[in-house]
Amino acid sequence: MNQVIYLDNAATTRTRPEVVEAMVPYFSEHYGNPSSVYEFSSPCKEAIDHAREAIAESLGAKKNEIYFTAGGTESDNWAIKATAEAYASKGKHIITSKIEHHAVLHTCEYLEKRGFEVTYLNVDENGIIKLEELKRAIRPDTILISIMFANNEIGTIQPIKEIGAIAREHGILFHTDAVQAYCHVPISVDEYQIDMLSASGHKLNGPKGIGFLYIRTGLKTRSFIHGGAQERKRRGGTENVPGIVGLGKAVEMAMGTMEERAEKERELRDYLIDKVMKEVSFVRLNGHRINRLTNNANFAFQFIEGESMLIMLDMNGICGSSGSACTSGSLDPSHVLLAIGLPHEIAHGSLRLTLCEENTREEMDYVVEKIKEIVEKLRSMSPLYEDYVKRPGAKGHM
């Protein structure tokens, strides 16, 4: 194959042509400042209003509960920091999990240095929190539970509905980082009793640099960026009109095709997983086999180094990752894989492949063939592998 096979959609997705087309007029034709009072700015105000309405409808939320941000990281920071500040008089205890995105984990670490206490929940071998452990972690001074909807590395989906019910029962605010899940699985903020939800445009074929935070009406959450009166005085700064328009268009398109898209991705994902597990030795699937995002396949290959595999896949025109794109420069193994119980040497041999509905079985066949070739080559240079296979009773699985 001469073309690039892109299998890193958890890192970012291709902005759809229809989204770009919807954005273009707001760069050069309707370029007014939405906060201006003259008629020339009306199309910008109306476009923002339309996008806000589309997003609210996708979640079963109210339009005035959607606040535009620069993306998922900002939304996570806003939800956690502003809640901590607003509810500090009630308590300074926060509950999250050990496999959250670093936008959540590093924000919690920041708060710990400022007098807050954070409980980091363990997860099982599939990356799912234990509800009983969550209940035991709740204290009289607990003000926030922040658990991601679906993990960005291993794709496992958390029991969000049950978590929301526990939080509501104890009068605790519930935030979920839904960056990977939004517009990929159905989400109802009322049904799941979610108080705050983070999402990002570039994970659903929208533009980069735009996202939103859903904040349930009635929360005391403070402003995050101080300045003008934009976003109902909670986030100052001139609105990113083209980005908001692009996000709104991407949401409309994604919601309209979600069911059909998910079915195609699931079928292709299962085909890829089954083929890798059958044709490659000493490999394990990370994350829950069924209860995972429809496009996520994450493997751990024993006796190889994941970065070497990525480089060799790239040389063959295949784009994958070894974990979160936000930590791609780190030499440390994935905190997610360590949390589900993988030893360091196996966690270093991880490969995340995240598909889209445009991928094909022919591409998956090619990818698996290249994985087999690369794994065989890397293991041929590994003294650990050579020693292991010589052992009596050595088996070709993990």
Describe this protein's structure.
The protein contains 14 helices and 12 strands. It is an alpha/beta fold and 398 residues long. The strands form 3 sheets. Strands 2-8-7-6-5-3-4 form a 7-stranded mixed beta sheet, sandwiched between helices. The protein has a 3-stranded antiparallel beta sheet with strand order 9-10-12. It has a two-stranded parallel sheet with strand order 1-11. Helix 9 crosses helix 13 (361-380) and helix 10 (306-315) crosses helix 13. The longest helix has 39 residues, at 241-279. The chain is globular. The two termini are 31 Å apart. 47% of the residues are buried.
Order of helices and strands: EHHHEHEHEHEHEEEHHEEHEHHEHH
Protein structure class: alpha/beta
The CA-CA distance between the termini, in Å, is: 31 Å
> Main beta sheet, described?
7 strands, mixed
Shape from CA axes? Answer: globular
Strand order in the sheet with the most strands:
2-8-7-6-5-3-4
Task: Give the low-pLDDT segments.
Answer: none
Percent of residues in helices: 40-55%
Radius of gyration of CA atoms, rounded to a whole number: 22 Å
> Could you tell me the mean pLDDT?
94
The amount of beta strand, in percent, is: 5-15%
The number of helical segments is 14
Annotation, overall tally of beta strands: 12
Brief digest:
The protein is of the alpha/beta class.
List strands and helices in order, with pairings.
Blueprint: E1 5-6, H1 17-23, H2 25-28, H3 42-59, E2 66-69, H4 72-86, E3 93-97, H5 102-112, E4 117-121, H6 131-137, E5 142-146, H7 160-169, E6 173-177, E7 196-200, E8 211-215, H8 230-233, H9 241-279, E9 283-285, E10 296-301, H10 306-315, E11 318-319, H11 335-339, H12 344-347, E12 350-354, H13 361-380, H14 383-389
Parallel strand pairs: 1-11, 3-4, 3-5, 5-6, 6-7
Antiparallel strand pairs: 2-8, 7-8, 9-10, 10-12
